[in-house]
Design goal:
Layout: E1 28-35, E2 38-46, E3 51-61, E4 74-87, E5 95-101, E6 111-120, E7 125-134, E8 143-144, E9 168-178, E10 183-189, H1 195-200, E11 210-217, E12 222-229, E13 233-242, H2 275-291, E14 294-301, E15 305-312, H3 318-332, E16 339-346, E17 349-357, H4 358-363, H5 369-375, E18 377-380, H6 385-390, E19 397-410, E20 417-432, E21 435-447, E22 482-495, E23 498-506, E24 511-520, E25 527-539, E26 547-564, E27 567-575, E28 581-590, E29 596-604, H7 608-611, E30 617-625, H8 626-630, E31 637-643, H9 660-664, H10 668-673
Parallel strand pairs: 15-16
Antiparallel strand pairs: 1-2, 1-13, 2-3, 3-4, 4-5, 5-6, 6-7, 7-9, 8-9, 9-10, 10-11, 11-12, 12-13, 14-15, 16-17, 17-18, 19-20, 20-21, 21-22, 22-23, 23-24, 24-25, 25-26, 26-27, 27-28, 28-29, 29-30, 30-31
Length: 680
Amino acid sequence: MTTSTNTYGTPGGLIDMPTAEVAPDAELSTTIAHFGGTTRTTLTFQITPRLSGSFRYSALKGLQVPVRGQIYPTYYDRSFDLSYQVLREGQYNPAVKVGLRDMIGTGLYGAEYITATKGFMDGRLRVTGGLGWGRLGSFNSFSSTGTRPTALLGTGGVPTYDRWFRGPVAAFGGISYQATDKLKFMVEYSSDAYPDETVTSNMFQRKSPWNVGLTYDFNRSTSLSAYYMYGSELGVALKFALNPRSSGPGSVEQAPLPVAVRRASAADLGWASDPAKQQTAANGLSTLLASQGVEAEAVRLTGSTAQVVVRNETYGNTPQLVGRTARAMTRTLPASVETFVVTQTYKGVPVSSVRLKRSDIEALENSDANAILARAEFTDGLENRALYQDSQAGYPRFDWSFGPYAKLGVFDPVNPARLDIGLKLDASYNFAPGWVAEGSVSSRLVGNLSNINTLPPNFASPNPPPVVRSDFKQYNQGHRPGIDYLTLAKYGRPGSNLYSRVTMGYLEPMYAGVSGELLWKPVDSRLALGVEANYVAKRDYDRLFGVQNYDVLTGHVSAYYDFGNGFHGQLDVGRYLAGDYGATVSLDREFANGWRVGAYATKTNVSAQNFGEGSFDKGIRITVPLDWATGQSSTRKQNIEVQSLTRDGGARLNVNGRLYDRIRETHQPDMAKSWGKFWR
């Protein structure tokens, strides 16, 4: 295991060559490396303890190799790597890893390798040796495994499987020495001849296959490396890392209330027949819950049972909401109440209920939270629909916010990153359970997102699909205010395990219309099924009230499944905004603290040639919970999507309030993952 990355941003304790080491499980790192006219920015995720994946964005200044029939002053290249440690290091055997570099891309960095690493001197000295193909077989090769295609792929984006482990084979190796806890020295022998950068382009001179360097770790998250490479070049690399499995900076939220244990003599049931006493107890519970950031929308009390319907606007982990509600119930309700039923709502409709015994809460307060989980009963929140519909607590309700926003555009073929900054006003009006009117207006103040190049020069599809997303820059022109969305939505529970949504209006910055959704999700199931149908028209570029002469019926049938061990998959099959038919496959690794790191790919009946550069739609997505970053309780999350290019094939509608993620976070499989928060 290593906390270092090489110049390609992949886990390894050498410089330009791979090792058999892996990063700590779930580590997410960004490495920025520069040498010889090339800057590589790489995002790497340790997907499992043995499997790692990397997405790289490289800028090569002065590359003279034609790509798409053209030579660029600075060519920006995207590449993706996978590596798997097939054998862990033991007392006598080395670790062994197999890797594919630039396996989905133009093939500029295409290489495959098998490498072994062994530690000596208590692991301070580590020795690596390996065999490489492709770029890693281009210098001093000693054998060959067949003919390897060498042409760069014009569109990229497709697996280069016809090249894997084919062509000349060369050896590489190196040694690293951990001199102190923070300082490490490296020396390596490189099998990469850099033919495109040296012979063809003269970006630098490769005088020697030997590289030397050192790495200094400022802390577990940040390191700086310096190198002398190929006998002619100085190089530098900066790495930032974090681990989504960690608990974050620490909690600054208010401490939970202690459980109040009942007195043995307080078993009188007389209060239950007195409406005034019932109301006093219910009001006391609502007031105490409000002080804990929990909104009680309905309360029903009987002699031995208390039912409370709560709205979560505070806690990112729903077990924490249930735990704090249960603590408050022990402190305000008469001693005869033994059964607590806590029902959560989403958009004004009940979604799930947790039934707890008060005596269990009293007895297990200082025990592991899993002891309470084993005794908790999860049921469909529909059982409390009548109670909820009888109450109008919290309605109507108006919420709003105003502040700055930032919108980032990345991977423009001419400029790697563009940014807009502006002001945004958001508002919502909940006028009855399940009924929500929402809107957002924003105005760009400064930025250059409108200058983004949506198609590379001299590249066009012979028969492209309708323009449905690739003109997104047109919606970011000027500085006048525009409507991001303005909708009326109805959420409902049409039956047991069923959830519904109907949304109409200006659904997103680019489309207006109507969207309907039906979700089947049992409270104790890892499987969910959904169907969504949308009829939308493309909005005018000014983001006001007009629409263009393009409308489409789009929708999908979806299957969601929690595989366990933190992995979650999704399959969507249907029709996309350009009228194309196909499927999207997604896989995410999810963590109990709310982090998610995943990837998706969409393939439709739009051919790779007609799709354009990238061949098909794909991307990486990361969800960062705000409470993880700040330590303050919050339901807000920041979604980050790393998409290589915006194209029209495989494009989907973006509509607020989709059901699945918010419904499942209140259900047993998801709540069990973060149940340790019950006592927080």
